[in-house]
């Protein structure tokens, strides 16, 4: 990582979803690009224009619906625009492309000005530079960087401000093609460049009349509209140099540091005369109205005033009156955005003040300002990422062919890095293949009056429409005792519930009219469901000790709550299925991206055929995280109905937006708690209540409500009561997600612990230590365990980070910095591994050995990126004594291994590894007579001899968890042993928070995790890194936004932000606990896929620690609420700075919010 990041700008926003092989894939990907000369690491990305020697001619391309023209002269371009004023100009296609793809925009004519030379010229003028409007943003960046290098600093204020914005605008690939002119005339309300260009006094050259147009407040007329007419062509932009005494700054706040649309942007310019008196000032904002906004009255209030605090106080009042957002404004975050207008003005003031100090300009009104306010405004975080890992070592006596315990690269990494890996949608189309389009509801709760398919059937390419009546077998799928319709018949219970299906010849498109009755009552927010007791059964409850007495005898009693938002799975491969009728005896092959092939095989029930007629094939999944079990089975079932009805292969691959709309997410949870504790920090009693937002159907929500099993996390609370229930709301049904309730349950407990620490004014890690399990222990449900390895992880993390000195340095930093605060958190995890439903703890495998000695393995586990196939190769390598290169795992298929259990609960390797081992041991035993006859023979010679002696070289293996007692949970008695064992870990994270904007950076993360004896340390460490980043996203970044009517706003990567490389901690250190053993799993290993995700909460609690330090500056102490995710908005408002406190708060219920709190 340290050697890659500085040279590759594009890598800064590579998305991070947890694949166990992430590190090796990424590094191999970089090497591949460099070796194939796709990246020149010695130069910056740029585009070189090559002069053509032959005369250029206008090119026309005409299709059935759209024509494309490429003129070669400016005169011809102007003529085309005057003749076709509604035809858009297309260069990078970064704005028009998404509109056409996702919003259905249709343009009969597209004009490409990429060969019109004047649009790409750069002309240096005496007081600035004319930049061609067609230049890409990368080229503009290169031009400005050259000007900064060539000119004195005082002349480059505007250039440096623009560069500041350009480096954070979108991503490198977008900047390589997006044009400067397109960025300007798109006139996005939250444009990064327009406020800076306007504040800097830039001018535009327009071709239609040759005049120059000032880029000022009059240029922006409204939402995405400007002064330019439909026939106008923007040719060039004049960017002036600055003068002595002129200062220009640009600021932006965005949900993520890179590749994210800004929440608020600013461009600010001030000209100071003698005595630092304001002679001119321009303040422009983006993101606080329908277009770029000039704060003219605020600027007027600053004119003629000395540059000082008194001037600012008046400016704040005027600015609040001038920049007004209604409480239900589009985009939400109204209080945050209004607060940012003030705090970013304050930042501008401080940076100008600092520049004056560096210039030696004395301002008598500012004595002492630097020591009290200016320090801690600019980031002090270092650049670059440091990543260290510690892996175990294999025994010196271990055979070189034995791959177990070695850091073997993920077997699919090369194919995935080069794009050769095959996923469902890469499967070649069968003859006569059709495509499926889902027709979904537009109401959160309504009755269906009728479905009119006549208009759809008249559309070209639409062959048929499948409705509820067409399903030949079971029309619903049963989950947890509840029925879920495959296609809605009489009633819909959420937006985007499938009503019917259009079957098409090509890319899905259809028009089906659905008649609705008047919308019925629907509880969409979680609190509505709680008030009306709209619950799915069963409700779960566990109690130990006497909670009431424990609360009565406590020195202190505190009540609080934590709201945790949902989380989109955002797997790289969306839901995908291809159903192929074989054509004989109603046999079907289903190629599917599913982590539960046997559950998907229930397609047979839908078609009314035996299961032996349906074969499910799973080659690999591009991620799943729990989201490809129940939802995938329903999608496969309705696709199969279409294939059955038409007699042809049908493919259904959801678009990213469709996937996010339909398939649900992690359960949002409201956690409430009451805790009694003593003066020394010991917790005597706790009462916790969890409400999970299940959505409109039950799905697997009752299993998530078993989160009360994890409400102790690592703490021995003598009197503990927990209750949990899944709430029925009219949102898309939520489903399983990595961790399955643990991230929510444990986060609420840690919030309670943190509140205790805040109430006692003590460090939170001390409260945790006082209450952690010690010695042989018993959980609140009666399971015995030894927490020794939990304490080993805890103490090792403390030792590696030097906890005492680090916390002291942190306190010192916070004393010296008013507007930047650092926080830290040390969090433990005790995570139960295995299914609490005992029948799921089984697995089977089939191993073939061929005459040439090669080995083919089939098992019930699905390869989702977690490396299960690689680990199975290692198991075979050890058991048969062959190199891993001779072992191959082709796919997971119900024809090879029937009745498999889902790959989930971090139990895939445990169960399937034992099954593969069982099969291999059978084979090895069969070969014993051959080995005895020829002890010095090779593996190949033994297998050939076995064939000649008619010894079977194929064996099945089976595993079932047989420890007494088996995994179980008796909810009536509130006791049981629901897990096979516990995986332990501890994590320290440290952050630096900008109190003025809520932006934070994770400075350091140290993780020590107990994985037993790792089968593959490289993959396990990759799992740890990926799980932590996914947890960091859950608790600090990823936010689902729903409209009041239940429609998901945050569809796709532009609205929903998952962690990227820019979110990786600057120092990221992962260590596997040495000398750990686990008798309950294969080769003494432990499941690691899920446990570490919760440790991402360490960043959340580090942010809360930093917020606490900021609140102390405002005289606020004690416990305070901070909901998850701790977005910049929530962190900034929780800091309670003077700026956020100036913003008036609207009364809840007095307006309709833009988005719901789900």
From TrEMBL:
Biased composition (Low complexity): 372-381, 390-401
PROSITE patterns referenced in this protein's UniProt entry, alphabetically: FAD_PCMH, MOLYBDOPTERIN_EUK
Keywords: 2Fe-2S, FAD, Flavoprotein, Iron, Iron-sulfur, Metal-binding, Molybdenum, Oxidoreductase
Cofactor note: Binds 1 Mo-molybdopterin (Mo-MPT) cofactor per subunit.
Catalytic residue positions: 1090 (proton acceptor)
Segments for region (Disordered): 372-407
Stretches assigned to the FAD-binding PCMH-type domain: 61-244
GO molecular function: 2 iron, 2 sulfur cluster binding; FAD binding; iron ion binding; molybdopterin cofactor binding; oxidoreductase activity
Binding positions for substrate per the UniProt entry: 740
Positions that bind FAD: 89-96, 179-183, 192, 234, 252
Residues annotated as signal peptide: none
Cofactor names: [2Fe-2S] cluster; FAD; Mo-molybdopterin
Top-level taxon in the UniProt lineage: Eukaryota
Chain residues that bind Mo-molybdopterin: 595, 625, 738, 905
Name by which UniProt lists this protein: Aldehyde oxidase 6
The organism of origin for this protein: Gadus morhua (Atlantic cod)
